[in-house]
Amino acid sequence: MTQRKRVTTEWSYSLAVEAGDTVYLGLHRGRGDDFTTQLDNTFRFIDETLAAVGLSRADLVKVNVWLKHIKDLPMMEKRFFAYFEKGEYPARMTSTTQFIDDDCLVMVDGIAYRR
Question: What CATH number does residue 94 fall under?
């Protein structure tokens, strides 16, 4: 049986679970007073988690972006151009939801692939 590497949290989920060549990212959220700050911090947090399993943002093949407010979609789309090399974007699904934490404006989860 193959060992799975986990990047655990103090809560009831892992930030990442490595299974074979695939790494599944649990929820990541950033802190800050506005949407752009939270989104930027979320991707810094994702970078740290990916580094813990020897990967980088370039290894993301799928992300799900959860927004509190649909009005933030245009800014999210604009910021994605800064997060990924041109033409090297992961597959993406974006949706809106209500978060448990009132101050949360965005969460991201996803899948990375070890090349």
Answer: 3.30.1330.40
* Residue whose entry in the numeric block shows the structure tokens 């965005």: 106
The pTM for the full model equals 0.92
* Residue 17 DSSP symbol: E
pLDDT, tens digit (0-9, with 9 covering 90-100), for 89-115: 999 999 999 999 999 999 999 999 998
Q: Specify the DSSP class assigned to residue 31.
A: -
Label each residue of 34-86 as H, E or C. Answer: CHHHHHHHHHHHHHHHHHHCCCCHHHEEEEEEEECCHHHHHHHHHHHHHHCCC
Structural tokens at position 24: 């599944």
Structural domain harbouring 38: 5-113
Q: Counting every residue, how long is the chain?
A: 115
Instruction: Report d(CA 103, CA 43) in Å as an integer.
Output: 17
Number of structural domains (the chain) is 1
CA distance 28 to 25: 8
